[in-house]
Input
Amino acid sequence: MYYIFDSVLDMLGTLVDTPVMEVSDLRMRYGDREVLSGVEFSAAPGEVVVLLGPNGAGKTTTIEILEGFRMRSGGDVRVLGVDPADGGEAWRARLGVVLQSWRDHSKWRVRELLAHLGAYYAAFSTPDKRRPWVIDELLEVVGLTAAAGSVIGRLSGGQRRRLDVAIGIVGRPDLLFLDEPTVGFDPEARRDFHDLIHRMTDLDSTTVLLTTHDLDEAEKLADRILILAKGRIVASGSADELSRQVAGEAEVRWTQDGRRFVHSDVDATKFVRELFQQHGAAVGDLEVRRASLEETYMKLVREAEGS
Amino acid sequence: MSRLIRIGLRRGLIELRHTVTNVSDIFGYLFPVALLLGWLYLSRDDDVPGSEVSLGAYSLVSSLALMLVISGLTSTAQYLTMDREDGTLLRAKATPNGMTGYLIGKIVLVAGVMVITCVVTLAPGALMVDGLRFDVDTWVTLLWLTPLIMLALLPAGAVLGSFFQSARGAAILMLPVIALTAISGVFYAHSVLPGWVQGVSKVFPMYWMGSGLRSAFLPGEPEQRLAVAAVLGLWAVIGLALAPRILRRMARRESGSLVAARRERAMARVI
Output
């Protein structure tokens, strides 16, 4: 009941709220090297935005600037309406950051650490968002109930990563940052993690910004994909929109009288309709393929790097 | 604010519990104590040359100073570098008021470890050596001296720790600390050292800690409590003025990619 009420409130909020993140002309220089040269994007409440890009494109730099961990060289950034460079503790309390873990707090036990870190958020509860997350519920959500009493240093890689996510969301953030969250996951852990992100955005309508190398992951999670190359956003849209934007044509394959045919067409639906009108039952093994996100991505990145 | 202080205190107590139930940590605390007690046992019948004070009692009290420096200054520096290296500090930074909680926790932890070290050194030591004084004055002196020692050492340790990129680097601090201890009259009478060495050692807190502690526990020790309080107080003031600024600067620079870079360096060392 509570969740329904909460999500109705959040939906109403979505209609009137300003963007959760607004970035314009973001620039970052390290000495002579310009890593970010005019990044622009915004994110609406409840949106899952995935930042894709090759190594060294500036993904981590971008996310660290938004988290308030790194000073930018120029441009305008608003996160939850505040410039991250002057974000205070109340602002920080509305953010969740899933760090790449290593071995911090290795002597602590899972529940002990979550309860401790959660306690900092209690002062930042609001009438419609009680902080922190009830620890037992949180453990259940991330699938760590059985490991609640385990010493963190002895967790498996997958469990440790779940704990990192749990720490990131213990304060029930309005905005969650995830930097390459599934590096080193096996396929099962990866699927669990994707379920968890879906559950979070459904339950709490949290806005999520995550970076990844994994195109499959981007396609599964993203409401919107931003492709970052050479310090700029070179494309933005859902996986579908991106492939339409780039490829324009779809590939149609079929067999007829034992022979294989391949044809590329902008309007594949129309082509297939005509194909059946002409040849009817003689057509077999029909397959229509839009450019995959991978092809789209490679093309966009190559174009950006070539320019 | 009081809620935040409670969170910090609880953090410190949890970390204290972790460290006193960790076998390798316990070994780390007890090993120097065992060496010291062994040495006290061997020298229990000797006197300090030219005085009535037994060498054992002298060494025991002076060694307390060394133990306090190791647990107060060196381990503060090492905790700090370790916490930077493994991402604990970044975690604190990503939490609202996390840095304040972290610092309160660390002060509780270090103070706790210092008290425990003192007790495990003093209790068996006092049974083994003769000539220690335990009267009202001893406790009164300890009551003002111990907090002052902590205030002088902790911020200084934090400042030193921020200069090192890795916990291994911070371990180098042991060398100057032991060298300074050696010239501070801890293992033998200060007066036998050349004058300029005596002068140098009087700049640092070890000499004054040793002197203060001896005045609390040894009969007939020259009283220079005002100077002890003044020098240790000066160290505390300088440390407390510098530490928050330097820690803030260090924390501001902390980011995920920095932690990742350090992790890679540390991994490369392991391989």
Chain B has one domain: 2-270. Chain B is about 80% helix and 0% strand. Chain B touches chain A through 30 residues (CB under 8 Å). The radius of gyration of chain B is 20 Å.
